[in-house]
Amino acid sequence: MKLPATLPGHIAVIMDGNGRWARRRGLPRKAGHAAGAETFRTIATFCRDIGVRNLTVYALSTENRRLRPGEEVEEIYDLLRRYISESLEKMERDRVRLKFLGDLEPLPGDIREQMERAEKVSARYDGCLCGICVNYGGRDEIVRAARELMHLSSGAETGDVTEDTFSRHLDTAFLPDPDLCIRTGGEWRLSNFMPWQLAYAELFFTDTLWPDFSKKELVSILENYSDRNRRYGGL
Ligand code: IPE
Ligand code: IPE
Ligand code: MG
What we know:
By secondary structure, this protein is an alpha/beta fold.
């Protein structure tokens, strides 16, 4: 596959459409989430192969956790358990770094332990850094950052709070802002995904349901991205 000369350093993905993918096949929604997890593995290793430095995906939002039936949330947790344990097995082969973002505190303890282990074991790889957002909400992230900043800096001057210092308290403190955000599943909205970090990202929406998303479609989006003129408010 021929790639464009300019690649984004950081791609963010709203992996939407798993449920509809399953429904169209007469399968339970969890089959769509399982297929979506496979697509994520394929896309993450492809990003590693083509030299994309960072890939961050939206796996479960704060609203999903709060508003979906408990049974579906549990199924997603089970898939996460399976995904992380398979990742631990395949780590030497896949060589992608894993990081988990979001409010992880309310998650079951065993998943948090697995997450910590996966982050620790994969930290030695220098391939694509894959961020997986679980119980993530952009507004929740901003509030958590503000609380942390208030807590840490009693007695500080208001001028000490800058975009830069604030960014350092977000879950993405270790990441550059995404250059490109792709949303699958046909909706044209962010659904509380990285409102701060996507301020100047290029947005791309596709009707493809996440489990059907392919390396080929990613390459065509990368071509579209490389033709865009990013001005950041300048001329
Ligand atoms: C995205 O797929 C994954 C999660 C939100 C967990 P959906 O589950 O939202 O799938 P649709 O939008 O119902 O098809
Ligand atoms: C966004 O999809 C969240 C994830 C992909 C994890 P949703 O399916 O939750 O978004 P809405 O409800 O259609 O806005
Ligand atoms: Mg959806």
